[in-house]
Write a structure and sequence with these properties.
The protein is of the alpha/beta class. The protein has eight helices and 19 strands. The relative contact order is 0.18. GO terms for molecular function: glycine amidinotransferase activity; scyllo-inosamine-4-phosphate amidinotransferase activity.
Length: 373
């Protein structure tokens, strides 16, 4: 069947087939959330984010929205259908019988919340209390897809309780230090416990019949097991990256570009024993180019390695942030056409080009890229 922009169809099996329909986030009403266990563990001890919370300044919201709108227009001009979320009021508190937090986060990074696997879009559990209701920003779109596409499956993972039992209190100290964090990461000791299944959608990479999931701060082993049971026709693989002291989301660490080729953050290399599946099937894992910046933008949760948080439009075309010149040079050497996208001033709202998008439709079917297992 040939894709038509007039007909809604949800389908995406991997990270690289030709992108036809996508959601691009918004910076509307984005807040820096109050302190909470999962969030505190993510923020470095010397970060300007420490002790900050409240609505982000309007001029920064306007600038981020300008860049996101421009990115959406760039995609439309390339023939991609683009949808946008409908922002809820993120100043509202989140209160359940188990916890209370005074504000929410935002709707810039749909990739964190929505996982598209084939004809299904799955709402992740989320691991931050402030992001409990974030799925509501996308419900109008999912309602529309469900009404227009009879094959579309709208699923939601069980909402966790997110009590204090979900988090290791060892991570609540503001004097842990990077050395201890790296030791804990190597030991696979993260802020999240195994109290109940937890996962963020941005910890999952799709390789046709195989799903690769990062075990870290936002996804625990029970969350990975839940995904394994939920997708019984897929092979679900657990990975971790010992060099990352703040392991949240896989898409600034491990980036598939096309069948047979993956970029890996050189500071967070995939362990040798976990590379076997890729090597046995002829995949090449290459170190990513260095970031062009020494520090992240102000009030940004992410590291400088958003340089490799790219959006693949097809196996020969990739969107790279405009200022990330070394990443663009590497993509060119790897045979990719580079589409420059200015987005750095929106990084603080939830991430880079991969983060701020969520697939709705890509060409191609569910293939087996790892027959030798």
């Amino acid at each position: 069947m040939v894709w038509s922009p007039e007909k809604t169809e949800v389908k995406s099996w991997n990270e690289w087939d030709t992108l036809r329909h996508v959601i691009v986030g918004r910076a509307d009403d984005c807040h820096i959330p109050p302190e909470e266990p999962a969030l505190d563990a993510k923020v470095p001890e010397d970060s300007d984010m420490r002790g900050q919370w409240g609505r982000r300044p309007q001029e920064t919201i306007d600038r981020a929205n300008e860049l996101l709108d421009n990115f959406a227009d760039q995609l439309r001009k390339r023939g991609v259908r683009v949808d946008r979320p409908v922002s809820i009021d993120h100043s509202q508190p989140v209160t359940t019988p188990d916890f209370h937090t005074d504000s929410q986060f935002g709707c810039m990074p749909p990739r964190d919340v929505l996982l598209t696997v084939g004809h299904e879009m799955l709402e992740a559990t989320m691991s931050y209390r402030c992001r409990w209701f974030e799925y509501l920003n996308y419900r109008p779109l999912l309602k529309q897809y469900w009404e227009e596409d009879p094959k579309f499956r709208h699923e939601a993972a069980p909402k966790p309780r997110l009590t204090d039992e979900d988090y290791h209190p060892d991570y609540l100290s503001d004097k842990i230090g990077v050395e201890k964090r790296l030791k804990w990461a190597e030991e696979k000791f993260f802020v999240t416990t195994e109290e109940e299944p937890l996962f963020d959608a941005a910890d999952v990479l799709r390789f046709g019949k195989d799903l690769v999931v990062q075990h870290g701060f936002t996804t625990n082993l029970k969350g990975i097991e839940w995904l394994r049971r939920h997708f019984p026709d897929h092979r679900v693989h657990t990975v971790n990256f010992p060099g990352d002291p703040y392991p949240i989301h896989i898409d600034a660490t491990f980036t598939p570009l096309r069948p047979g080729l993956i970029l890996n953050n050189p500071q967070r290399r995939l362990p040798e024993e976990q590379r076997e599946m890729f090597h046995k099937n002829g995949w090449e894992i290459v170190d990513s180019a260095q970031p062009a910046h020494n520090t992240p933008p102000p009030l940004c949760y992410s590291s400088t390695w958003l340089s490799m948080n790219v959006l693949v439009l097809d196996p020969k075309t990739v969107c790279v942030e405009k200022s990330e010149v070394y990443q663009a040079e590497q993509m060119d050497k790897l045979g990719m056409e580079v589409v420059e996208v200015e987005l750095r001033d929106a990084y603080a709202f939830g991430g880079g080009l991969h983060c701020c998008t969520a697939d709705v439709y890509r060409d191609g079917d569910c293939e087996d890229y790892f027959p030798n297992q």
